[in-house]
């Protein structure tokens, strides 16, 4: 199972991932032609507003759309030289919770209400370690609970999720995800439901664990601050598509896509002087059943008309080297607009 | 936990006391007030005044109603003596008095009927839970398939058809036309398990069909909802097999709320034995009750009513306790 | 007499916890446990703190949706702490509340028109051009299409629903609006739209706001003054710039340093300067003795366990800056960077 990377392929490589759902209202084009990669020891941040396709992307990597009969997944997902879209259900199942693991947004609903926290972690450990006794699994679980900073782990082992505080619950979920030393950890908005103080603790923990185990991390969030704290690379998603992709420093300091500008303009920042007014994106996010023609962002983009009619008719491709953008505006034009019109208002 | 238990038991006892008061009131007090004499019921219209008075004293019918009630309760708890001069009859606790018609003690009369009713209800319950849950789970997993639609149509029929219809139909088909089964009848289990089984299988299946329908629909709906829960996604993301995900994590969440409904249904079935036993011609508590009602046999009616109330209260108690054990959110607040 | 529109003093809200058949009182959730606050006419007072610290309860006391267990609520100089239905009627005109969840705070079976006009009808407000046109004016005001008068809440997006909630709150032309996490459930881009709308409306109608949120950057953006709450108490209050540049209470410092900075270049510095609080907020049923923050405070000493620090101004700060701490964070500690980088050009 553990083939070592010999080729040039990154540890996780996603190519042209497309996910659609057939619903009564029509086809939901949840993710279109997404491509990205993460190396071991690195963190990829995925940002975007709700409904932009972040969770669907991560669930696709774990193969969790397979149980939904209305989901269609296309493209390639390479994890350590193994292709996952075409792999059998059983092969993917063995990777889940083993080589790749996931943490979810709402830790209360992510825990089974009728099983103790300990039992749920033990179960995850034993399914990947056949023949390990219950006692050994228990010891391992308690170690893990202690490692993620849960006090009195022996006592906590026998408690239920609802008896934990929000922060402790998320710690327990992290312990559950990490119990098999995964090499890829996907965290889907792990701190959205938590207070900033607890968020800081959890992010700190994830950073620590990554340093310790050298795993690849995908951090999904809608908070640009969280991405800036953790990510080496950033994907910005809009309407199911990646519209900007690049190293965190580039994306934050020289953002190239009008939507990214809008996101930055929308958030008040503690590290800057108070602005008189925020500069939000106008309008609302599109429906994924009925995406606008051309650039999906055009109904909300202040620059849509600047480059002839292309924005209205032609879907912009994600283009560029390390820092890639999906927008028809010429590169110099984008740079100029950012520095002259956008940056002064941030 | 212990204080919870005690509280629940105290509640149950209070409920039962209220039930005895109400039934006692209805069955004994009302005739007294309206002037129809229980003693007459007991001894028959032709009796002479002397024996009528004797009966009155013996049954304590001349006492004020609260005193009668007190004696009734005492009889339940400690047994009582019925005395008229030297004529003393002792009735052991729990004493429900004597049948007006057969002059038998009511308690043993009813006790001997319990196995019939209980056999009927228990067998049907086992069947309907198994069939209902299995059908519901399969339907949920194969949603929209032929199996799902067939099962749900069947379930709809089961829910909407009354027992006296399906029951008669089953008797007609399986016993009279096809002759596959002997007439429905009760043979004590210890006497002959095989006859016990064959004599009851038809009522079981018919009853199970009625209830299984509800369970299949509930299980299906619960399962569909549960499969969308975050914790099911978590279970899958841990790499558990689909069998564990559905059979363990899913089913546990689906079955827990069913416990409450099961308790209610089982209680209803016991209490509502009149109809079912009538349909299948079985001589259990329901039959006893019906006969008693026809004959105005007040002590028996009172006994059956009380027993039915006890069934419901006790089953509710068990269900509540069970629920607090299986749902840690109730147990641990 | 004063320019305070709303004053609360010694305000307490204890929710009883009962047990058993006889509903014996076995304790109380001390959701709000003795706070004094004044809201000046025309200002925005921000209320921040971790979840469960009593922000919403304070808001509901200020609007007299809840009746305080103890203490006073003065609105426009009038004591409304315990007035009944009749006495509340004028208050219901002058004080309105906006809620976090735009989904659950609107009745799904009523049209937008009837939702927004309900307060007008209840209060018998004359509408010279008819109810409908009054509602349509309100819709226009909050940036919604007046044609959508007859639609139902589910036909609107989250941000639009929040606008409907704002229109309903504005219908009676209130003097004070208490907004409880009005943008927390919204996406960033929509959040900014609503924040700007609230700003515009304040200017246009001379509104006074109490703005409750857990997002410190949003609160800083919108507020003139900010009160930091912890376990049912106000632990620090100051003018916005003063509070964010010179936080004195160790909790405020920790809270602010925890906010992630959207700038990868500052990542290292932010992490180095971060004050990581350990553990969780203690239960409000049994708050710690003395200073409530002491179980998580890195500056705590013996006295903190015995003496409850009062909310008072300190010599080096303006009188409007009050801190409840025996050992406030000093200028030096602040300069040494125990906080996110201050305002920077
Ligand atoms: N099982 C499904 N069937 C149909 N549509 C789905 C399904 N799962 C997701 N979608 C749709 O896919 C789109 C993207 O969903 P996703 O959950 O990835 O959004 P997100 O960016 O993570 O948003 P949020 O921040 O709200 O979690 C949404 O429009 C959602 O409605
Ligand atoms: N009706 C209630 N009954 C009991 N406890 C309550 C009630 N309302 C609020 N509380 C408790 O009061 C505390 C403060 O609540 P709240 O003001 O809603 O906090 P937040 O700062 O999150 O808005 C919490 O511990 C909460 O659980
Ligand atoms: S392609 Fe056009 S509409 Fe789309 S982001 Fe670029 S400028 Fe705006
Ligand atoms: S009073 Fe003591 S415990 Fe409380 S905040 Fe100040 S230093 Fe910390
Ligand atoms: Mg999501
Ligand atoms: Mg709140």
List the helices and strands and how they pair.
The complex is a heterotrimer of chains A (346), B (333) and C (345).
Chain A (H helix, E strand, L loop, with lengths): L11 E12 L2 E13 L4 E5 L6 H8 L9 E9 L2 E2 L5 H7 L4 E4 L3 H4 L6 H12 L5 H14 L5 H5 L8 H13 L5 E5 L7 H18 L2 E6 L2 H7 L2 E6 L2 E7 H6 L4 H9 L39 E4 H4 L10 E2 L5 H12 L4
Parallel strand pairs in A: 3-8, 3-9, 6-7, 7-8
Antiparallel strand pairs in A: 1-2, 1-4, 4-5, 9-10, 10-12
Chain B lengths: L1 H33 L3 H6 L5 H11 L5 H14 L1 E5 L2 E5 L14 H36 L4 H15 L2 H15 L15 H35 L2 H8 L4 H30 L1 H8 L4 H10 L3 H29 L1 H4 L2
Antiparallel strand pairs in B: 1-2
Helix pairs in contact in B: 1-13, 5-6, 5-8, 5-10, 6-8, 7-8, 7-11, 8-10, 9-10, 10-13, 11-12, 12-13
Chain C lengths: L3 E16 L4 E17 L3 E5 L6 H8 L7 E6 L2 E2 L5 H10 E4 L13 H11 L8 H11 L16 H13 L5 E5 L7 H18 L2 E5 L3 H7 L2 E6 L2 E7 H6 L4 H9 L8 H7 L28 H5 L5 E2 L8 E2 L7 H5 L10
Parallel strand pairs in C: 3-8, 3-9, 6-7, 7-8
Antiparallel strand pairs in C: 1-2, 1-4, 4-5, 9-10, 10-12, 11-12
Helix pairs in contact in C: 3-4, 3-5, 4-5, 5-6
Bound molecules: adenosine-5'-triphosphate, adenosine-5'-diphosphate, iron/sulfur cluster (SF4) (2 copies) and magnesium ion (MG) (2 copies).
The site of adenosine-5'-diphosphate (ADP) has 12 residues of chain C, from strand 2 and helix 1.
Q: What brief labels describe this structure?
A:
heterotrimer, A: 346 residues, 4-stranded antiparallel β-sheet, disordered N terminus, B: 333 residues, mainly alpha, 2 strands, globular, binds adenosine-5'-triphosphate, binds adenosine-5'-diphosphate, binds magnesium ion
Taken as a percent bin, the fraction of beta residues of chain A is 15-25%
| Major sheet strand order of chain C | 6-7-8-3-9-10-12-11
The number of helices of chain C is 12
Output mean pLDDT of chain A: 92
Q: Strands across the major sheet of chain A, in which order?
A: 6-7-8-3-9-10-12
Q: How many strands, which pairing sense, and closed or not: the largest β-sheet of chain C?
A: 8 strands, mixed
Q: What are the secondary-structure elements of chain A, in order, as H or E?
A: EEEHEEHEHHHHHEHEHEEHHEHEH
**Which cofactors or ions or other ligands sit in this model?**
adenosine-5'-triphosphate, adenosine-5'-diphosphate, iron/sulfur cluster, magnesium ion
Categorize the overall geometry of chain C.
globular
* Unreliable sequence segments of chain A: 1-5
Whole-Å distance between the termini of chain A?
A: 49 Å
- Identify the quaternary structure here: heterotrimer
Rg for CA atoms of chain A: 21 Å
Any idea what the shape of chain A is? globular
Radius of gyration of chain C: 21 Å
Give the integer mean of the pLDDT values of chain C: 89
Q: Count of DSSP E strands of chain A?
A: 12
Show the largest interface.
Answer: A-C, 50 and 50 residues
